[in-house]
Amino acid sequence: MFNKVLVVEDSKAFRKFLDAQLHQAGFHTVFAESIAEANAIIAKDNNFLCAVLDYCLPDGTDGEIIDIVLSHHIKSVVLTAHFSQTIRDKVLSKGVIDYLLKDSAASVSYLVPLLQRLQANTHHKAMVVDDSTMIRRHLVNLLERQNLSVIQAENGCEAISLLAEHPDVTLIITDNDMPKKDGITMTREIRRMYSRNQIAILGLSGSSDNSMTAQYLKAGANDFLYKPFNQEEFYCRIHHMLNMKDTSDKLYKMANQDTLTGLWNRRYFFDQQCDKGCQHRNIAMMDIDFFKKVNDTYGHDGGDAVLIHVSRLIQARFEDAVVARFGGEEFCIQACGAFSHFQQRLEQLRVDIEALCIPYLDNTINVTMSIGAVSGAAQSHAIDDMLRTADDHLYYAKEHGRNQVVAHAL
Predict the structure, then answer these.
(1) Do residues 290 and 389 touch, judged by C-beta distance below 8 A?
(2) Measured between alpha carbons, how far is 153 from 54 in angstroms, rounded to an integer?
(3) Pair 171, 238: CB distance under 8 Å
(4) Neighbours of 26 (CB within 10 A)
(5) In Å, how far are 309, 367, 369 from 356, measured between CA atoms?
(6) Structural contact between residues 392 and 371, judged by C-beta atoms closer than 8 angstroms
(7) How far is CA 190 from the centre of its chain?
(8) How far apart are CA 82 and CA 283, in angstroms?
(9) Are the folds of 4-117 and 124-255 the same?
(10) How far apart, in whole angstroms, are the C-alpha atoms of residue 51 and residue 57?
């Protein structure tokens, strides 16, 4: 349960404050006032995103709760009433994610973004690139505490190869001085394939060269740190880069996804060229039959329900294709592969939509779909021309009875 947080805190007022902050952010909090209560809760369920631990408790005044919770492999953030370098070093050496002071609301407000980052990190994969086994292990340990899945490479050449095998990598931490290919050269090569928004890169170096930061940033890295680095600063840099990437991804989706159905929109569709190297491109234009009657009978909410269900079905049947909502009740598919197989899939989709029973209030709505399809050489037929032809086939299907697939190759 990735929104469940264990809070061990003996102050009633502070528990109430934390509960309000975490609840507003969408987290489910489970509270304990002592080590004994925390043990009882963990004995029943230790599936928590994270634990927030008060350093000083009635039955453990010197941070004993930290070792207990960590022994159950629960990631932990420690709260302390007063700053002490000794306590800070002791806490961080145990392997906690972070420590926070309880001296002000502003200080504790850092907790919510931290937990949100931990939650979001489950969707990210990192790659550590370093020729030192010991340093790789240290970096992997730090990143895994942050809920990141991690792969490793010993040098830049291996990293480039692994990146091709793991296209879901969103973060790279790389040293510079490595055999075969150094970090700066590797960063330049990666930037020819992926932008800063697609893959975030943090450069590292133990070099005394004070131009290293500029070299990495000019090569395309998002950020840079000299080794040895401070754990807190490392996490702050990582959080900043991933926050920027997540924000960029959200903005990209807002600009390119249809709000109602979640499908890609017209803008995105025209930006997509065939990226699989296929020789032929298949295009299908499709339109829900008599959709105006649906809106007239059930209202626009009923029409929206139909659009959502039909969109899900199209996406499920064509997971390997680009599926877009062009507007209203009109959809489009772009796919590679044999045209005969594409036609078979479209016909099965038409049959599935005809059989679809869409629940709405106390009613069940049924619709059909008309489809026009075309196939042509990807290099010699412009997508605009293919869309017009597919649209002509769709118009023919509408004029000759609807609920059918009309398909021809160019």
Answers:
(1) no
(2) 38
(3) yes
(4) 11
(5) 9, 8, 11
(6) no
(7) 20
(8) 65
(9) yes
(10) 15
Torsion of CA 23, 76, 69, 147, to 10 degrees: 100
Residue with tokens 């491109």: 281
Q: What is the pLDDT along the chain (410 residues), one digit of tens a residue?
A: 578 999 999 999 899 999 999 999 999 999 999 999 999 999 999 999 999 999 999 999 999 999 999 999 999 999 988 778 888 888 889 999 998 888 777 777 889 999 999 999 999 999 999 999 999 999 999 999 999 999 999 999 999 999 999 999 999 999 999 998 999 999 999 999 999 999 999 999 998 899 999 999 999 999 999 999 989 999 999 999 999 999 999 999 999 999 999 999 998 998 876 555 567 889 999 999 999 999 999 999 999 999 999 999 999 999 999 999 998 999 999 998 899 999 999 999 999 999 999 999 999 999 999 999 999 876 667 888 899 999 999 999 999 999 999 998 87
Domain boundaries, the chain: 4-117, 124-255, 266-409
Q: Which fold, 4-117?
A: Rossmann fold (3.40.50)
Q: Which CATH superfamily is domain 124-255 in?
A: Response regulator (3.40.50.2300)
DSSP 275-296: -S--SEEEEEEEEETTHHHHHH
**Residue pair 171/126 in contact by the 8 Å Cβ criterion:** yes
Return d(Cα 204, Cα 226) in angstroms, integer: 6
Distance from C-alpha of 395 to C-alpha of 250, rounded to nearest angstrom: 36
The pTM (predicted TM-score) of the whole model is: 0.80
Instruction: Round to whole Å and give the CA distance between 90 and 96.
Output: 10
Class of domain 266-409: alpha beta
The sign of the dihedral angle between the CA atoms of 171, 175, 179, 182 is positive
Q: Long-range contacts: 10-18, Cβ < 8 Å, 24+?
A: 10/34, 10/54, 10/57, 10/58, 11/54, 14/102, 17/105, 17/108, 18/52, 18/108, 18/111
3-state secondary structure of 35: helix
CB–CB of 4/48 below 8 Å?
yes
Tell me how far apart the alpha carbons of residues 201 and 188 are, in angstroms, rounded to a whole number.
11
Where do we find the tokens 């790789």?
136
Q: What is the CA radius of gyration of the chain?
A: 27
Residue 63: CB atoms within 10 Å = 20
